[in-house]
Amino acid sequence: MEKRGGHVYFAKKDTDAVNYITNLAKEKHVQRVVKSKSMVTTEIDLDKQLLKLPGMKLMETDLAEFILQSDNWDEPTHIVFPTLHKNRDQIRGVFEKLGYTGDNDPTRMARFAREYLRGYFLQADMGITGCNFAIADSGLINLVTNEGNADLTMAIPKTQVVVMGMERLVPSLKEAEVLDNMLSRSAVGQKLTSYCSFSGEQVAGESDGPEDLHVVILDNGRSNALGTPFESVLQCIRCGACLNVCPIYRHIGGHGYGSIYPGPIGAVLSPVLDGYEKFGDLPFASSLCGACTETCPVKIPLHRLLIKHREVMMDKLKTDKAFNKAIMKGIGMGTAHSDLFQMALQFDHSATLPFVSKKPTTVDNLYNHQGHITHAPSMAKGWTDVRDAPRPPKHTENFRRWFKDHEAQKGASNDDQ
Amino acid sequence: MTSDNREEFLNFIAAKAERPRHQLTDHPFVPLNDLPETTLADKTPAELFALAKENSEAEHVTFKTAATADLPSVLDQMITDKTAQSLLLPTDERIAAYGLTDWAAQVAPRPTYWDPAGSRTENIQRAQDADLAIGCVEFLCAESGTITVATTPGQGRSFHFLPKHYVALVPQSRIVPRSRQAMDWYDTELKAGRLHTSNINFITGPSNSGDIEMVLVVGVHGPIDMTYVVLTDK
Lengths: 417, 234
Ligand code: SF4
Hints:
The complex is a heterodimer.
Chain A: E1 7-11, H1 14-27, E2 32-35, H2 39-43, H3 46-51, E3 57-60, H4 63-70, H5 88-96, H6 106-123, E4 126-129, E5 133-135, E6 140-145, H7 149-155, E7 159-165, E8 169-170, H8 173-188, E9 195-199, E10 212-218, H9 241-245, H10 247-252, H11 263-274, H12 276-279, H13 291-295, H14 302-318, H15 321-336, H16 338-351, E11 372-373, H17 381-384, E12 389-390, H18 399-416
Parallel strand pairs in A: 1-10, 2-3, 2-4, 4-7, 5-8, 7-10
Antiparallel strand pairs in A: 5-6, 6-9, 11-12
Helix pairs in contact in A: 11-14, 15-16
Chain B: H1 6-17, H2 35-38, H3 45-58, E1 61-66, H4 71-81, E2 87-90, H5 93-97, H6 101-106, E3 112-114, H7 120-129, E4 132-136, E5 139-141, E6 146-150, E7 165-171, E8 175-176, H8 179-191, E9 199-203, E10 208-209, E11 217-218, E12 225-231
Parallel strand pairs in B: 1-12, 2-3, 2-4, 4-7, 5-8, 7-12
Antiparallel strand pairs in B: 5-6, 6-9, 10-11
The complex binds iron/sulfur cluster.
Protein name (chain B): LUD domain-containing protein
InterPro entries (chain B): FTHF_cligase-like_sf (IPR024185), LUD_dom (IPR003741), NagB/RpiA_transferase-like (IPR037171)
Organism (chain B): Schleiferilactobacillus harbinensis DSM 16991
């Protein structure tokens, strides 16, 4: 890349990337930015930061992203079809605010967007794109789009910024070609997407294309996956196939995930990037049917990674191992020795007194032993956090005692016959 | 502004991954199979032509053929059909090779050219103003109906994207089975230093989008329609 005259910047965090790009825009007095669809710039929230610069105009040029931007920065719901949640009338409503006067015919609306955005393209002084694959040996950036907007973004403005996740690297053009084929088939069922481009900084003699190219390589949590069982999630080519087959995604839609990466891939990736605190719920939003794993073109074991997330969470976050081990050992001893066990049965009722709810009971169990437990200590807390536990019966009323008495009675009545 | 943090970044990743840093040349990738090369590789030129036609048409492309002698009249017809008021041609030796020099000198409307000596603004404006562009491309991939073209000083990037209607001229001998064979050629030419370009486009049909209710709309940012003319005697 640098051999071709480009600049490469390594960004550890989202803010590093955003700062680099906003500084570049300031330095070059950029006023008009055109962007082509890129998940990673949404991930680092670049648009809003750039728009804070005085006088800055920024336009998303992918049709769907353009619709979202025009609708007051609505959030995307799908990796490949971000406006899946809007119907044609809603889109017409959005366009009417921009001066569209036609009907809700998709072709006419798309033509309107074409004309509207063309004007922007021709005046743009900076183009920002994502990157499907970066080719290591030739330093070219591979972009795949259906609309051709990425190519215009790379052709017209003098300055181009590419933001890429650090895992987007492929060795040579050949691997990029294989993956482009795979991506097209898995994403939209086409043999090859309309525009697959491989490009870098303008070479001598050419009159369009970027004169100044900056590539920002972003970590932003991706390295959390390295050296862990989740490493394979970095193979993802963002085709969206796992979303399409996921029964959960199909019911709740993209917004429900609260992350810009929805669906199975989002449920695996978001906790890796941003931690369990924020996205710990996502690995549980799965029926574990495995349809995602089956469809994934790059063979990421998605549903197995979801289970792994649950495991890791349970291990790391919920259980304090040393303490629980001691308790389990105690319980093991108690239940293994009959004397100890008998003793436990003698005292369990009175021992639970401190934990019995003081509040009046509204509904009673059939067998009630003077109250129920709402705040048990230690391991049993997991249970009482979500429901009440019945209090153990008094020693004189417990099952063993009852059974003994019952047997005795039965024996007596048998003798009668 | 350059990557002064490069070493730190790369070392950090290597440490996280618990693998030493390495160079691609020391650990080349070994493909698991040769499907990219072998798929459709056994087809005859006639079979490839038929496949190319079928797959291009499936991508909403108008597929035409012409012998060099007939090419001018085919192009004239197209100008009439599209009621093209302005025409853009590349500065490219293939125009002469396809016998179009005389035609270009007298065709109406008078063509403008993507000019290697022209400025960025001039060339982009010409492409923007063009109703019809006639480009020369390197390959047509039979499997997907894809044309491939590398940017040159005489045929820039916007040449293929800004005009309203777009025609690609491709010799029949340049129909290859898949994108793989085309890519192999570019890869070799680039590495041998015979090809100097900043951009290679693989274009499959006119621009399109399914962003509105997943209804396929043809013609979004790029050309709204596309014609391939296969030169049967080249
Ligand atoms: S995880 Fe697999 S199926 Fe899902 S988007 Fe990534 S590559 Fe596609």
